[in-house]
Amino acid sequence: MSTKDYLEKDYYAVLGVPKTATPDEIKKAYRKLARQYHPDTNQGDAAKETKFKEVSEAYDVLSDSKRRKEYDEARTLFGSGVGGQRPGGGGFPFDFGDLFGGTAGQQGGGGAGERLGDLFGGLFNRGGGGGGTTRTTSATRPRRGQDVESEVTLSFTEAVEGTTVSLRLTSSAACAACTGTGAKAGTTPRVCPTCEGTGAASRNLGNFAFSEPCRDCKGRGLIVDDPCPVCEGSGRAKSTRTIQARIPAGVADGQRVKLKAKGAPGENGGPAGDLYILAHVKPHAVFGRTGENLTITVPVTFTEAALGAEIKVPILKGMPVTLRIPAGTPNGRTFRVRGRGVTRKDGTKGDLLASVEVVVPQTLDDKSRELLTEFNTATAGDDPRADLIQRARSE
């Protein structure tokens, strides 16, 4: 993506959030749009696939506090449009068409700081008169690889305990047919005569000299006369590989896991991009989850709740634990079993929250009915609704 394209894109509008949106609001908007436009649910729909890529690109920038700050500062400096005067008037005229025109998109990704670094590296170099010297950037400098996004579906237990999954990734890499040169096998590129292989050219605007990628070689420093038929001279091609990715313990449904340097390989010795994995967690038949705590509903009998009891409660992994139910426990009361919940980042665990549910017998034999009738007679003076009726009348 060229710097011009980068500055012109309104990532906030793509996600449908205001510039003041919090990280949680940005994440919520991204999840909603990712589900709506994901290629797996819109197979064959090129428009929605393109939209999904735009949404992912916007989230990559706005979810990273450093990249978001750089993006906001760049758009504040230059404005969201191109052309016209410098904000505030009174300054020198900026022709953004000259400043950005003809810049070639940098394949291979890279953060906002890297893209703006290419621009600002030789932006304001004062020349003498109309000439002057310009600092240029070598076309062979290392470039960071693209970030890659994938998805994985985990069982409830895998999400709580952590697991390792196999992922098949497709990303951009050096073309195997031409080893990244862009030239057909048996031929070699030649040095660009315009920029003499630097990949950059200067343009003088009054007292300022601007550096921009060479228009003839598109910033590569090389001219390909006989392009590679596989990559059509770009030097890049799609690469498919399988990796083993470690999903940390405690990941939640819809959470985005970042694995550093697991994305697309870099160029010219540059670092690899990052891998972002969107986790989908299947529900459990018995357990639920609230933050770092697991939840469970435990059925108890009327007599256990009334008289008290010691009951066995299952945990996610391992032998059941014994829970003491005191006499007179009401329906819905929650007990905390410490250290039996979700693993935190520091290695400690949350708790298991066990809520009791008093089970009413569906059928009674004669003996049970007789005993319950005697109990009902003995407690006839205890009306649990007396206060309720009195309070209702007082309103």
From TrEMBL:
Zinc finger (CR-type): 162-240
Name listed for the protein in its UniProt record: Chaperone protein DnaJ
Function summary: Participates actively in the response to hyperosmotic and heat shock by preventing the aggregation of stress-denatured proteins and by disaggregating proteins, also in an autonomous, DnaK-independent fashion. Unfolded proteins bind initially to DnaJ; upon interaction with the DnaJ-bound protein, DnaK hydrolyzes its bound ATP, resulting in the formation of a stable complex. GrpE releases ADP from DnaK; ATP binding to DnaK triggers the release of the substrate protein, thus completing the reaction cycle.
Note on cofactor: Binds 2 Zn(2+) ions per monomer.
Keywords (A to Z) from UniProt: Chaperone, Cytoplasm, DNA replication, Metal-binding, Repeat, Stress response, Zinc, Zinc-finger
SUPFAM superfamilies: Chaperone J-domain, DnaJ/Hsp40 cysteine-rich domain, HSP40/DnaJ peptide-binding domain
Domain of life: Bacteria
Pfam families (UniProt xref): DnaJ (PF00226), DnaJ_C (PF01556), DnaJ_CXXCXGXG (PF00684)
Coiled coil: none
Name of the encoding gene: dnaJ
UniProt domain comment: The J domain is necessary and sufficient to stimulate DnaK ATPase activity. Zinc center 1 plays an important role in the autonomous, DnaK-independent chaperone activity of DnaJ. Zinc center 2 is essential for interaction with DnaK and for DnaJ activity.
Biased composition (Gly residues): 124-133
CXXCXGXG motif repeat windows: 175-182, 192-199, 214-221, 228-235
InterPro entries to which the protein is assigned, alphabetical: DnaJ, DnaJ_C, DnaJ_domain, DnaJ_domain_CS, HSP40/DnaJ_pept-bd, HSP_DnaJ_Cys-rich_dom, HSP_DnaJ_Cys-rich_dom_sf, J_dom_sf
Domain J: 10-75
Record-listed Zn(2+) 1 binding positions: 175, 178, 228, 231
Region (Disordered) location: 124-150
Signal peptide positions (record): none
Entry's family note: Belongs to the DnaJ family.
CR-type domain sequence ranges: 162-240
Binding site for Zn(2+) 2: 192, 195, 214, 217
Cofactor(s) demanded: Zn(2+)
Subunit structure: Homodimer.
Keyword Mitochondrion: no
